[in-house]
Amino acid sequence: MPFNSILGQEKAISYLKTLVQTGRVPGAFLFYGPDGVGKAKTALEFAKALNCQDPVSHAQGQACGQCPSCQAITQGTHPDVVFVDFLYQARLEVKKDFSSKGYEEELASVLAKQQHISVDTIREVTAKSQQKAVGNGWKVLIIDEAQSMQGAAANALLKFIEEPPAKTLWILITNKRSAMLRTILSRCQPLAFAPLSGKHIQQILENNRLETEHPSLCARYSAGSVSGALKADQALTLLQEAGLGPCGCSPQGPAAVATGLSRTLVTARQEAQSVLDVLLIALHQQWANAQTSQEEHRLTKTLQQFERYKRSLTRNVSPALVLETALASLDGLPLHIFDTENTHD
Predict the structure, then answer these.
(1) pLDDT category, 337, cuts 50, 70, 90?
(2) Given Cys at both, which of 49, 152, 176, 222 links 147, Cβ 3.0 to 4.6 Å?
(3) Domains recognised in the chain with CATH numbers
(4) How many Å apart are CA 22 and CA 61, to the nearest integer?
(5) How far apart are CA 328 and CA 320, in angstroms?
(6) H-helix or E-strand containing 149?
(7) 215 φψ region: left (φ > 0), alpha (ψ -120 to 50), beta (else)
(8) How far apart, in Å, are the Cα atoms of 24 and each of 10, 13, 159, 166, 294?
(9) How far is 36 from 39, CA to CA, in rounded Å?
C-alpha cells in the first residue's frame, strides 16, 4: 500500500516522505490519534519506504510495493520489521506449532484475553532490536496499543528507545497519548494523526470493499475513524432490526435491542457501547439544532445521563440492562437516528 493510498493523513505522510528522502530518521516515534485513522498502516508503509530496494521510489520517499523487501513486509515475513500487537503476543503465548491440531482455537482463546502488552513481549522484541540486521536497510520495531504497556513493560523498553543502534527505528502507536508514561513520551518524537472526514471514510470503505448497509450514516456516526464506522454499522443494524429504524420506534424496541446483544459478556459490552455512541452523536446533533430552550435543556440532561450509562458499561452491570434503560429513557424524544438529511462530510 503506497503512501498515497492512505487517505486523510497528508500532513503526517508528507513529513515521513521527507525523512525517507533525507535519511534523518529519529530513533523513536510516537504515532498518536484515534483508532481507525491509518496509524498502523502508515507505520508499515514507512517501514517499506525505508527498506525499499527500488532507487526511484526511495528517492521520492515512497515504497514501490513490488520489490522483495516491500513484499516481505506486506506478508509479515521481513526479518528486520516486527509488528507487535495483541495477535503477535497471543502467538508468543501459544506453545504450539501453527500447523498443529487445535492451534487456531487456542490462539483465538488466548487472543480474546489480551489486555496489555506484557513485559515478556517487550523483552522478546528488545532482544530482536539488538540483533544484526539481515539486510542493509532499517530495523523497524512497531508496537501497537502502546498505551497498554504497564510499568514493568514500559520500563523495560526505555533504554532501548533512548539510544537505539544505527538504522534502528521504534514506532509506538497509541490512541491515548495521555496514558503513556512521561519517560516514554520524552524519548519519542510525536506525530499526530487526525480524525478522518466523512468523505474519506466512505471512500476507504468502498476501496477496501468493507460492505455496510448504511454507508453515509456510518460516516456520520464514525467519530472520524474507519473502525468507528464499522462499529456504527453494527449498531445501526441492531437498532433497525429491533424496530428503532427510520420509520420510528416500536414499543418493544428497547427490550428487543437488549435481547439482540451477544451472549458473550465482552462482546455484548462492545455492542452496547457502539449503540450508545451512535445515540450520543445523534443526541448531540439534535441538541446543536434545538429550536427552543426547553428542548435544549432536555437534550442536555439526556446527554449527561447517556454519559453515565456509558460509564456503567465499564462496571459489573449487565450491558443488556444498561442499554434497555438508556433506550427507554428516550421515550417521547424524537431522535432522527436514520435521518440522512443530517449526514455530512
Answers:
(1) confident
(2) 176
(3) 3-192 (3.40.50.300), 198-342 (no CATH)
(4) 9
(5) 12
(6) none
(7) alpha
(8) 19, 15, 21, 11, 58
(9) 8
- The span from the CA of 274 to the CA of 161, in Å, is 36
What is residue 31's three-state secondary structure? strand
Report d(CA 69, CA 73) in Å as an integer: 6
| pLDDT tens, position by position, 219-231 | 889 989 999 999 9
Phi, psi (deg, nearest 5) at residue 97: -70, 140
d(CA 280, CA 298): 14
Per-residue pLDDT, averaged over 309-332, amounts to 88
Alpha-carbon gap, residue 273 to 279, rounded angstroms: 10
How many Å apart are CA 130 and CA 52, to the nearest integer?
Answer: 22
Measured in degrees and rounded to the nearest 5, phi and psi for residue 191 equal -140, 115
Q: Do residues 30 and 177 lie in contact, with contact meaning Cβ atoms separated by under 8 Å?
A: yes
SS3 225: coil
Instruction: Determine the residue type at 307.
Output: E
What's the start-to-end Cα distance of the chain, in Å? 25
Closest CA to 342 of 271, 265, 287: 287
The dihedrals phi and psi of 143, each to the nearest 5 degrees, come to -120, 110
- pTM given for the model: 0.84
Tell me which residue of 286, 298, 290 sits closest to 342, measured CA to CA.
Answer: 286
- Cell numbers given for 269: 459490552
Decide: helix, strand or coil at residue 141: strand
Question: Quick check: helix, strand or coil at residue 190?
Answer: strand
Which single residue is written with the C-alpha cell 472526514? 197
Residue 264: CB atoms within 10 Å: 11
Percentage with pLDDT > 70 across the chain: 94
What the block records as the C-alpha cell of 59 is 528517492
What is the spatial distance between Cα 306 and Cα 287, in angstroms, rounded to a whole number? 13
Neighbours of 198 (CB within 10 A): 20
